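re: ur msg from earlier - yeah i can do the magnesium ion complex, just paste it... oh wait u already did. ok heres what im feeding in:
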Amino acid sequence: MSSILTITFNPAIDKSTLVPELIAEKKLNCSSPVYEAGGGGINVSRAIKRLGENTTAIYMAGGYTGRAFTRLLTREGFDLIPIKTKESTRENLVVKEISTQKQYRFGMPGPETSKREWQNCLAAMAGFKQANFMVVSGSLAPGIPTDIFAEVSRIANKNKAKLIVDTSGEALIQAAKAGVYLIKPNLRELGTLAGREVLTLEQVRIAAREVIKRFNCEVIVTSMGPKGAVLISKDLFITVLPPDVVVQSTVGAGDSMLAGIVHSLALNKSLTEAVQYGVACGTAATMNPGTELCHPADVAHLYALIRSSSSISAIHTK
Ligand SMILES: Nc1ncnc2c1ncn2[C@@H]1O[C@H](COP(=O)(O)OP(=O)(O)OP(=O)(O)O)[C@@H](O)[C@H]1O
Ligand SMILES: [Mg+2]
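and the outut:
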């Protein structure tokens, strides 16, 4: 197994609670909150641990909530490199209304992060020389410039690690410009890179090929929610449809999918197997309620279905 390093520039404690009914102006009685450490790269590390492998997670953490965040993470059992920030780690709120079974997600912007702090993060990445895969996932905290990806890409090159990025907006554009091995946009994020709306499979194929030509990235895995995913490189075009499942919550599906892709690549599997395993992990995550990531037994079952059914996975070259 190759060594995987994940980087989370804007982690969060996800605080979940239940409320009978969301009513404005009224005091609402919530259930005891459940706390979870979250943020793109952290979720990828947690999902890979569930799949049976270790990773190392570099993440920013500060203040009382940052200490609580690290305490929550230590029970997960993977290696941690926290980078201290002066401002406190953010807390996001997830409220489920029992009467409608609807989930409301309140995301906070994250702490202002100083230049010295994000440079410390880059120094930790540069110092982790054993990584074969570097996975940067999630948003950038306020104060972190989007052109940080130029430096991230240089570090990955220097350390001979393959850089994998899952982010959105200007940060994604900058990452694709700087040089990445693989990106995992959803349809909206691929649209940001292509500069237009992308909806159909044919539009994905054209847009991803254009992005590969115009930007500096080798492989694009576009996730399409219930329609699975499409992997496109210079000479591969692979579509993977997920098997039918009972969907409980799609929260965290993208992170589980990315975990599956990286886990598979780190085991020297082909890109075809990696995207098939990624879809198995993403879809497995949707079978669980709330923010829960994929369960290994569900992943194994879905992966076997995907591998055995040629109708749900089509491979074309060029
Ligand atoms: N409704 C669904 N039914 C089956 N599988 C799903 C569904 N939604 C998501 N998935 C699985 O999860 C993968 C990633 O989902 P999606 O395209 O929604 O990612 P995302 O938009 O990046 O998600 P996130 O909100 O976690 O960032 C899909 O490729 C698919 O395998
Ligand atoms: Mg996503």
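cool cool. The chain has a mean pLDDT of 95. ping me if u need the other ligands too
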